[in-house]
Structures are given as structure tokens and as C-alpha cells.
Amino acid sequence: MLKTLTCTSLLISLMAISTMAQDNSAPATLSQQLAEKAAGFAKKAPADRLAAFTKGIDDVRASGIEDSAKQVGDDAVDGTLAGWKGDSVTLSELWKEGPVVLMWYRGGWCPYCNIQLRAMQQSLDKIENAGARLVVLTPELPEKAKETAEASGISIVALHDQDLALAKKYGIVFELPEVIAPMYQARLPEYNGNSALELPLSATYVINSSGKITYAFLDADYKKRAEPSEVIEAVKAAAK
Known about the structure:
Structural class: alpha/beta
CATH topology: Glutaredoxin
Strand order of the largest sheet: 5-4-3-8-9
Order of helices and strands: HHHHEEHEHHEHEHEHEEEH
Helix content: 40-55%
Number of domains: 1
Distance between the termini: 60 Å
Shape: globular
Largest sheet: 5 strands, mixed
């Protein structure tokens, strides 16, 4: 009898381990994917380069941009922007029909942006089924945005926020801190078509049908982005 119980207990333990293994095989969240990317970079990057990026994040945060940007409860700023297909989109015409998810990404040169774009693509059906439209904005030129979409295997069409004009109205644009600016001097003009050393926060907003901001993700750390599941919950709340 003791031997039978021991075997039974062993079987239960193995089944429990198997169940835990299955749970751990669940798709990684966006935050987990971003953290993994950051950890990989930290392992191979020179210490001085890591220190420069860390100080750059600290400098952006110290500017107060996270608090001075548009916040929950503020009126959304309208704008008309065009995508690489040449069609124009007026934001207010979209949010009159239902909630809008407004998301900026920095450019196809940014690996964290590409991870976020793929995650949002995978959640697009859930976002739309919750009643919202996803609007992706970027300062990169339309032809570059098209290349970014093709490279990432996404169908999302990014609208061109030329010279970050709309992002500036939302208060999410910052000048690159001196410690990291030299790293972008060749890259940004090529992608954005101007010489400005400026970037937007990787901000995500949810706007309801009254044109009010009901959700805002603002973080000076470019390695952190709005989690799709949180955006979907925000959309559901805005649609009520």
C-alpha cells in the first residue's frame, strides 16, 4: 500500500510539473519581450554606451515631459495626416465613430518599436472588436514607414507625423540629450527627412467619442511601452 501511494504521489507531482510547464509556455507579454531585448543589449554593449543611454533617459525624465504632456482628462488634439498610400486621415472623424488608440513609434531603426508594432498587430483584432481604431503615428518618412511595416510583417499603416507637428501639440517631443545626440546625427535625418535631433516619447493614448483622453501611457524610458492588454481594457472602458 505504501509503495502504491508513493507512486501515486509521484504521478501527481509529475502532472503538476507538466501543468506548470504548459503555463510557462504562454506567449510572452510585450513587457517581457522588451525586457528580454534590453537584457540582451546590456550583455553585449560597452559600459560607456550603456551609461550614456541611461543618463539620456534620466535627462528626458528630469525635463518633466511625462507630467507636462497631454494627460487623462485633457482634450485630444485633432489633426489630418497621410500614410504611405497617400490617403489622409482626420483623427476627429475617427473618434466621433468610437474610441481611437493613438500610438507613436520612433522609427524602424528602433528595435523596441518593432517589437511593439508586432505586439499591437497581434492584438489588432481584439482592439477592433472592443470598438476602437488603432492609429499609429511616426516621424519617419512614408517610404521608411512602409519599409518598417514590411520588415516587421505587419499590416498596420503608419501615418506620417511630419516634423512631429502633432506630437508637439501633445507635448511628447523632446530634444535628444547631449550625451546621446551624436549617436543619432546620421540616423534621424535619413529616416525623418530633416536635421532636427528630436524624438517623441513612445506614447499611447485612448481617446473616446467625445474627444477626451481616457488613457495615457507616458514613459521617458524608450524600453517601456503600453501593454496591449491594458490598452484593450482602456478601450472597453472608453466605449461604455
